[in-house]
Amino acid sequence: MKLTNKEILLAGQAFARLNAVKFPLKTGMALVKTATVLDKQIEVIEKMRQSIFKAHVPKDENGKEALSILPNTPQMDAFNKEWVELLEMEEDVSIVPVKLPEKIAATCDKCHHNMDKMLEIEPEILKPLVNFVE
Fold it and tell me: Helices (DSSP H) in 89-133: which residue ranges?
């Protein structure tokens, strides 16, 4: 599946937020496998971001790098241009979409009885996962 680096980063954040949900074993395992594939690509993206930063961060007279790039400077403009270019790059990622269950195991808050409840995930979490879940 072809995905932009931006889609990969957003999906990685969404998968991290899904960690709070207790899924059935098969679903949980499939989500972990998918997140692991994304994490590897996110590491590459982060290394590239750091490389772009180092290329544009100002240095003092001793060659020591500053901790940040000041806004509204040519260095920030150059960094942003390359960062956007990196985010728009497409990567071929081998992922099988995960089927999310309609219900998950839960415990009643009042009587502590085991029961099933509807799986509720906020749309802001699901939106970046549209290519990864069914």
Answer: 123-126
**Residue 108 identity:** C
Closest CA to 129 of 98, 108, 105, 86: 98
* Residue 82 burial (C-beta neighbours within 10 Å; 0-12, 13-18, 19+): middle
Q: What are phi and psi of 59, to 5 degrees?
A: -120, 150
Which candidate, 14, 35, 4, 3, places its Cα nearest to that of 124? 14
* Residue position matching structure tokens 């699901």: 126
Instruction: Give 29-82 pLDDT, tens digit per residue.
Output: 999 999 999 999 999 999 999 999 999 998 888 888 888 888 999 999 999 999
- Identify the CA nearest to 52 among candidates 79, 86, 81, 70: 79
Q: How far apart are the first and last CA of the chain?
A: 15
Is the entire prediction scored with pTM above 0.90? no
Query: Is 91:8 a contact under the CB 8 Å cutoff?
Result: yes
